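Why does residue order matter? Because the sequence determines the fold. Keep that principle in mind as you read this record.
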Amino acid sequence: MNLAIMASIVKVLHIPRITKYGYCPVYQVVRNHWNKDYKPGPYPVTQKERDAAAKKYGLLPAEYEPYPDDGLGHGDYPKLPAISGDDKDPYYPWDFPEHKRNFNEPIHVHADMYGEDRYNVSFKPRFSRLYMWTSFLGVVGGFFAIYFFMEDKKMFRPV
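Structure:
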């Protein structure tokens, strides 16, 4: 019954006529904004190239600093400060509030690592590393000591 209803809906809508090219996958391929459009350009060498790259990313030439040309492929992408999602204002009227970012705002190269549900750059742990290691080794050492000293004293029900 459900298949008959779906077939009649498709027949009535004439899905191939809705898109310009006949079917949706071709429409998806032909439209603008491919991934190649977001690929960074070559590393800027001259001041004119640096100014053009700063304008491309919506930054002032004074605040634009590219990543060093060390072969990682960052090209002219700006070296932005690492700010986690937890550090951004939750009450600011973001264009994309789920990611806390605005339209046309350049994102960090490692933006996939700095989300709200991931690594926090400015996280301050409650305890020092020395305290954590001392606690860990104390608990593990205590269990090992109990096991070592009680190994020859087996407990069982004398039946």
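Helices lie at 2-13, 15-18, 24-30, 47-56, 129-150.
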